[in-house]
Amino acid sequence: SFVLTQPPSVSVAPGKTARVTCGGNDIGIKSVHWYQQKAGQAPVVVISYDTDRPSGMSERFSGSNSGNTATLTISRVEAGDEADYYCQVWDSSSDHPVFGGGTKLTVL
Amino acid sequence: EVQLVESGGGSVRPGRSLRLSCTASGFTFADYVLTWVRQTPGKGLQWVGFIRPIAYGGTTEYAASVKGRFTISRDDSKGIAFLQMNSLKTEDTALYYCTRTYGVNSPFESWGQGTLVTVSS
Q1: Which of A63, B70, B101, B121 sits at 20 to 30 Å (Cα–Cα) from B91?
Q2: Which residues does chain B have within 8 Å of residue A95's beta carbon, measured at their own beta carbons?
Q3: Residues 6+ apart with CB under 8 A from B116
Q4: CA-CA distance, A89 to A48, in Å (whole number)?
Q5: What pLDDT, in 10s, does the model give residues B51-97?
Q6: Contacts of A86 in chain B (CB under 8 A)
């Protein structure tokens, strides 16, 4: 089955840019969705279809996807962005969804 | 407002059964794939299974770890999806979320708050 690999943790200072990567074989040909999960809360979509922001989502969140890596970029990081971030795709060989292991974003 | 509310969680012994419910409101329930995702405390998200809309056969798919033990069903007249969990194992202990999606390649747009299942002797 398709495997997505994320770094366990990323740390960034307030006001800087955070990049969370999601690796997978030829992930660039798939649609990648990103979810933010704050402590004690359910996940929320922050980026869908590689680059689309849901209505109301901050423009500080953006996404890209090419080759074997998809990236979630958070600009001008704020304390409130501290959360776990998960990437997700659909495995075309089975039509089953696959989640990455998650990345804990720490704002220093 | 779209709402998904899970219920039915609790503590059970290994080998026993439990049925979770997901009650939906605020959208046309019949149009969506209803998916169950679980999260072990302190760990990541794991897909459990989903059920397609009746218009697409109402068929189901399951993760290998639960196939043959878990069954998903839906009652579109009441806007409820169910997760019947049989032969529970300690490794099934998790927070179970209900979520909706249009289907393959689509994101999981809305999530419930989850219901906790604890399997322990």
Answers
A1: B101
A2: 61, 104
A3: B9, B10, B94, B95, B96
A4: 10
A5: 999 999 999 999 999 999 999 999 999 999 999 999 999 999 999 99
A6: 44-45
